[in-house]
Amino acid sequence: MKPTTPPKTYRVKSFGCQMNVYDGERMAELLAAQGIAPAPEGEDADLVVLNTCHIREKAAEKVYSDIGRISKAGAASGKQPLIAVAGCVAQAEGEEIMARAPAVSIVVGPQAYHRLPEMLDRAVAGESATDTDMPPIAKFDALPDRRKIGPSAFLTIQEGCDKFCTYCVVPYTRGAEISRPFRDLVTEARKLVDAGAREITLLGQNVSAWSGENEKGHRIGLAGLVRTLAETDGLARIRYTTSHPADMDEDIIAAHGDTPKLMPYLHLPVQSGSDRVLKAMNRSHTAESYLELLERFRAARPDLALSGDFIVGFPGETDAEFEETLRLVDTVGYAQAFSFKYSPRPGTPAATMDDQIAKEVMDERLQRLQAALNRDQFAFNKASVGRTCQVLVERRGKHPGQWLGKSPWLQSVWFEGDYAIGDLVDVELVEAGPNSLAGRILQRVAA
Ligand code: 5AD
Ligand code: SF4
Q: Which residues bind [4Fe-4S] cluster 1 (predicted)?
């Protein structure tokens, strides 16, 4: 039986990318504005929102196992929660979810979640509610103000993607590229800082395609936006993710050299080191043009930490082509990276290409690639020992007096002392691990 009383408590579970984390926070704010409270830790919620990811098959399948687990627990306790499926699986498989998982009451796509309160009313009245419309940007105007948040906050500046990489579902699930207006972003950044943020990460599937009109009516791009936001009093750090090599212009390269609040970290997915594979992926860059671009960024900001995304086992990828990816990794020396086995996504051109690669081959390639990436990440951390830098205190550690924060290069840093979340402290990096560093406090920096 699906519940028919209005929910008093909610839980939002977000999977996948940071865009989903942002959407999850906004849905939580929307539900809180309706008088629904977050379910206390460890207690069942009356409403569970599964904010899903469709980028790879594993991520998409997780939704169905989660729904099964939640309704089984509900049956055992005699209290079925209302289940809403949001995010990219909702967008891509709306009707299919309702058919395959009868326990679900609401299916809402990433561009329609501002209508969640009306959908809840319908669900409580016993109707199933599906909304996978893609109205451009309407949701942002319909959402409530930002509430108290942590020191590091996300701000979605752009959604959707026009690049149509042949393996990727994003252009279908998130739709065409849309930039949020300049003025709205300046206002939201101010509100985030007023609510406690010291660092803002500008988000989008392709933030480098952001464009807008500034207060003088001039057309500006991502760099112009970064420079304006850097003037926000109380904001200490700006980051952005994700960008596409084809859209990175001189201005954003220069901003890394001349805007101190823009952190020395660049996540620039390459996907493969083979020009033939890159062409088949419709990536519009070559290994060489990518490396040249990185050199220009490094010239502007020599201490820049680099990060990237990789796919192994794209259809037709030969051993020699995979070796080219390993060579590119060796050349770049990434500080951090994300790597995945190719996963055929229904409706994308690569899903029907010849020469799909066997699972065992993909497993082996991923293992080798990740070994190289882990080695480089550890090397980057080891090379950081002896550096002094500012760390933004984000949360308490496991032990009393221990804190965890992020270095400018997005490394996790542990240290001890008497601090508060949101403090910026000067730290000397004294010891490196594969995934984090230990720091010794020099002094707290004035806000
Ligand atoms: N299979 C595997 N990885 C994928 N990505 C996107 N689509 C797929 C797919 N079909 C990866 C890319 C992208 C990151 C967000 O996810 O590396 O940059
Ligand atoms: Fe997907 Fe990124 Fe390519 Fe856009 S640029 S299609 S989001 S992989």
A: 17, 53, 88
